[in-house]
Amino acid sequence: RVHEAMFAASFEGRENPYNTGLQRQFWYTMWMMVLACCARRSLFTTFCPRIDQVDVDDAAKDADGFPQYIIIKLEKWKGNRDGRRWQKLKISRNYVDVRFCPVVALCLWLKTLHSLGVTDNGPLFPGLSTGHGRFSRADAEAPLERMTKDAYTSHWRAMCAYVGGGLLLSQRTHAARRTVVKWGARCGEPWMELQNAGRWTSNRSFMVYWQDGEALRRRLPPGARDPINDIWVWVPIQIEAGTSSTSCN
Question: CA torsion angle for 58, 28, 213, 211 (degrees, to 10)?
């Protein structure tokens, strides 16, 4: 539903609130990455990785020219505000349906950044100007600005209202993380892999989400195939981690 609606002028009688091609690609790519990384709102706003923290060249390329995986180095996140630790996430391609592939979406986004003259090493998802036709800077010589958490929330609520109808009603951005955990559970993945992928330090609320997904999986008739397998199968994010002697700037 999100893919169909995001790149159309209207959806189920509702006008698309994303008024430029740049804004539509921006949000759809970020949405794919939020799902792939089981991300909190702050991961791609307050702590947004820089462009040079994304590696699309290390992996072998498929016949279509896109890499088999991407690597994102995280230097800061909610539980690591001082940058004392780091993580490298290995995000694999979705070979089931290219429309929902975070690797393809991010590669296309990097090409868009380059085509728009983004040569400085700023945030992977810069904030957009008021008209959503260019990126936000304090002035012509200033570096690109990060997207704010409030702007992210506005995007989320706009998507819920536009795409959701009677299906997508949550106004809380945290609903995305719950969705990913339920999705992974439906795909039969162990809860430890999902907790690790989402950087949870406590499994108190996490286990509620995972048990919801497990209940959905068990509810299927014997031998039935979960429709999620025809969209995007969740696979564990391979994580390399380490510590830094000084905080990252």
Answer: 80
